[in-house]
Amino acid sequence: PSPSSSTPGTEQREKQYRAHQGSGDHRGGVTGARTYFYTDEAKCDQHMETFLRCIDASSGSSEDGFSAIKLTALARPQFLVRFSEVLLKWRRFFYQMAAEQGQAGRAVLDTKLEVEKLQEALANLNIVSKAESQQWFTGENLDTSGTMDLLDWNSLFDRRSKLSRPLLIPNKKTGQLEPLLSRFSEEEELQMKRVLQRMDVLAKRAMEKGVRLMVDAEQSYFQPAISRLTVETQRCFNRSQPIIYNTYQCYLKEAYNNVTGDVELSRREGWHFGTKLVRGAYMEQERERAAQMGYEDPINPTYEKTNEMYHRCLDYVLEEIKHSRKASVMVASHNEDTVKFTLRRMMELGIHPSDKKVCFGQLLGMCDQITFPLGE
């Protein structure tokens, strides 16, 4: 379904990123007490030290090694839920504006807002004056056509700190304006800084040691924040080679939109796109939570749909490797058809194993009948 505000699923999608008891925080009954903030920070630092040792171990045991990290170990999970919530609100605002310009239902990168109409809408909603919105849409944020797509829109979000007052956006349900960052406290801003610093430390060590750093995907209510923080790190460290790998779960309905959006961003900004593709690991938990909280199940309805999504995302990345040579993929799959599909497409596209642009990941001892012939 289209993510525009005119579709019935939109309000439900929002609920997906809301914290509720039992999600986002590992301790029951704890609601942001200040004392926990510092113990959490100390724990995150300890986890970072453990990850640094893993990077060193990977470097010592193989050339072009991998090390995997989990962001819920480097940031307070409750913060990741809240940050995801804010990112989703911002994206939803874009689709709401697109629907008003008659663009509901278009593919993600084909949805382009006309800036003049957008400025009028923002002024009419009393969000910002015409003069203020002109500052928003200076040359560097726009292509020459006077339109902006979701990637341009996201870059506006990065400049939010330069706004003189809190950014208010319309709540579709109530019709009232509400602050986008109403949930963000100074402590949470500090957590944002800290988690980026920790990722920075890990990325630097990985670069020094010639190790590729894979950021694991987690539950969908953390994932927008995890992906966003990973892309920030890719922008800095994937300039000349793919050091940082983002993970995409192909059982999610949004997988293709997420992959294509991030590939396009890497093209525009000139960095190397590194990805691990997985089918996904949290289906039961996701479905249970969706039913419990009354939002649309974020996962593809059938196994076949997920296979289709996996091959569609993989094909898109393989095409990108062929055209730009600035992408790399780990096919993390125990599925024989997927492995054969990848090998066939590599051959058709002229991607050779020695190019080291495609690698495969399987768990030790699981599906050895695929792993060993593949190794040969």
TrEMBL record:
GO MF term set: FAD binding; proline dehydrogenase activity
InterPro entries linked: FAD-linked_oxidoreductase-like, Proline_DH_dom, Proline_oxidase
Segments forming domain Proline dehydrogenase: 102-374
Designated gene of the protein: Prodh
Chain's role: Converts proline to delta-1-pyrroline-5-carboxylate.
Keyword presence, Repeat: no
Keyword terms: Coiled coil, FAD, Flavoprotein, Oxidoreductase, Proline metabolism
Catalytic activity: L-proline + a quinone = (S)-1-pyrroline-5-carboxylate + a quinol + H(+)
Name listed for the protein in its UniProt record: Proline dehydrogenase
Region feature Disordered, mapped onto this chain: 1-30
GO cellular component, one term: mitochondrion
Family membership noted in the UniProt record: Belongs to the proline oxidase family.
Gene3D superfamilies named among the record's database cross-references: 3.20.20.220
Catalytic activity, EC: 1.5.5.2
Single biological process term from Gene Ontology: L-proline catabolic process to L-glutamate
Compositionally skewed regions (Basic and acidic residues) per UniProt: 11-28
Biased amino acid composition, Polar residues: 1-10
Coiled coil feature spans: 108-135
Keyword Coiled coil: yes
The organism's taxonomic lineage, starting at the top: Eukaryota, Metazoa, Chordata, Craniata, Vertebrata
Biological pathway: Amino-acid degradation; L-proline degradation into L-glutamate; L-glutamate from L-proline: step 1/2
Species the sequence originates in: Pardalotus punctatus (spotted pardalote)
Enzyme class: oxidoreductase
Cofactors demanded by this protein: FAD
